[in-house]
Amino acid sequence: MTESYLYAAARTPFGRFTGSLSEIRPDDLAAHAVGAVLSKSPALDPALIDDVVWGNANGAGEDNRNVGRMAVLLAGLPTSVPATTVNRLCGSSLDAAIIASCTIEAGDADVVLTGGVESMTRAPWVLPKPVRGFPAGDVTAVSTTLGWRLVNKRMPREWTVSLGEANEQLAQRFSVDRDRADAFAVRSHALADAAWNAGHYADVVVPVTADGETIVLARDEGIRPDSTVEKLEALKPVFRPAGVITAGNSSPLSDGASAVLLGSGAAAERIGTGPLARIAGRGVSALDPQMFGFAPVEAANRALRRAGITWSDVAAVELNEAFAVQSLACVDAWGINPEIVNAWGGAIAIGHPLGASGGRLLGTLAHRLKDSGQRWGVAAICIGVGQALAVVLENVTEANR
């Protein structure tokens, strides 16, 4: 089998819910990310892209009808470039990259463009279709922005608790208190702001413009450089009167898109550049739905085993910060140095547009390894309904030394 490599990564800035990106359709955001990542490989003839695998969690509104294919068409790629859309909720774009890497390693493709998109602002309300015309009772419109909706009554109630309540249970089980959660959130904002100021995102984030000229958003919109533990302490818990989970130590609703270009080693000539990193290991895991936040622990451990390394080899971790509680529980379970986790900030500050977050993690990790010269990194993400994904990257420059 051949090996698969990450050649380029790009994303939009992530916008706040009802913020600067709220007037942009998700398929247009996706097209922007496609164009952004291809701009990093100008020698690549887009007609030579074998496939596009795109992630999206909602798919109930403007992102319906295979948003991956819509992105290809809207970005102006040849109509001969195929595309599919995958849905593993928060892990959708990381799943897209995993699927693409497996396709490349199997020899079925040389160049695959992957990524994901979510506009949580524009996610529609939905109505269940009546089983017969003119129902006599009222019908409730359900928001598709986040979490369970139209729940099957056969599901055990403990599985279908809110995402926040699920993390309150994690906080209780793993003894993560409010002080630690708030401090973790403040760290996320401080590191994200520092990373932007240091120029770390200059090669990763491509501003969103209107009509190709006016900049709509150039920097992640949710970062609060002035965040302090004292300010977060003033916020009331959302899910339990004396609970841990607040709006301040949870990831916000967000809009955005990310893209990652993968290829075989032989594809370097076609792409026109050398790769940044090798896909060295992959892992997927699942457990009880309400424990979803802890699922990255086993997913990452499996990915490491398949890469043939251990946590002692890992120098950089990108863990999606759905909630501070679940992030801390995972870091504690791995027994790693917290300083290697999300060194350029995490989702609590940057945002978490569901279908785009996996691509953000993978692209950020590749650039962190490139900038630092370190060899091994792990990207991991928890997924609603009790799942998680992880990918191990190897810095190609370091591997060849």
User: Which stretches of 5+ consecutive residues score pLDDT under 50?
Assistant: none
CATH architecture of one domain: 3-Layer(aba) Sandwich
Gyration radius, rounded: 20 Å
Helix-residue proportion: 25-40%
Major β-sheet profile: 10 strands, mixed
Order of helices and strands: EEHEHEHEEEHHEEHEHEHEHHHEEH
The dominant shape is: globular
The CATH homologous superfamily of one domain is termed: Thiolase/Chalcone synthase
Q: How many helices? A: 12
Mean pLDDT reading = 96
User: What is the strand tally?
Assistant: 14
CATH names the topology of one domain as: Peroxisomal Thiolase, Chain A, domain 1
Characterise this structure.
It is a single chain. The protein has a domain at 4-121 and 251-393: Peroxisomal Thiolase, Chain A, domain 1 (3-Layer(aba) Sandwich), CATH 3.40.47. α1 crosses α2 and α3 packs across α11. α2 links the parallel β3 and β4. The two termini are 23 Å apart. Helices cover 31% and strands 21% of the residues. It is an alpha+beta fold. The radius of gyration is 20 Å and the shape is globular. The mean pLDDT is 96. Strands 1, 2, 3, 4, 5, 10, 11, 12, 13 and 14 form a 10-stranded mixed sheet that branches. It has a two-stranded antiparallel ribbon with strand order 6-7.
Structural features:
Peroxisomal Thiolase, Chain A, domain 1, 31% helix, 14 strands, two-stranded antiparallel sheet, globular, 401 residues, alpha+beta
